[in-house]
Amino acid sequence: MLREVWLNIGVEKVDMHKGIIVKALLDSSMIEMFMDRKIAARHGFRLQKLERPVIVRNIDSINNNREAIIYQVEVNVYYKNYIERIRINTCDLGRTDVILGIPWLQAHNPEINWKIKEIKMTRYLLLCEKNTKLKEDKKVKKRRQVVILEEEKIVRWAVDNKENWRKEEEIKVDYRKIEKIVPRKFLK
Fold first, then answer.
1. What is the pTM of this model?
2. Is the per-residue pLDDT at 97 higher than 90?
3. How far apart are CA 84 and CA 103, in angstroms?
């Protein structure tokens, strides 16, 4: 008996950070990820034109009668504690809002309990970890740049004031000499 597994996921517009909750079908026979064109249009997702249209073929390798896929959307996808930014092709999906195909399944490798239709994200998340690592790397790099800039400012200041340091030292030495020569009551 064939079973379907559905998830409720959040899909957020990248440019406006406004999102919706949709039902997503996990489908291991799909080589891509798809969002229904009507859902994308109704909720104002920004469509990005593909460089080349993608011809949709049926399982028997015959071209599908519907139009080719010409647009995709970039979205943030939320599922439980996981967040990631992905690009999803748009096409007519009928009653289905989103289909998460092989790329998503391979990247996340979820545990699926087919009997109770439960999905757990317990395995190594290569894509999510990579995205998180990239974000962390960018933050670390930015922090390093700030530290380097601060260090450069200090070095520049030191170089610019190097002559003044010598003068200050000379003044201190002169002051000590004066203190030795001149009685204290005259120094104020």
1. 0.61
2. yes
3. 13
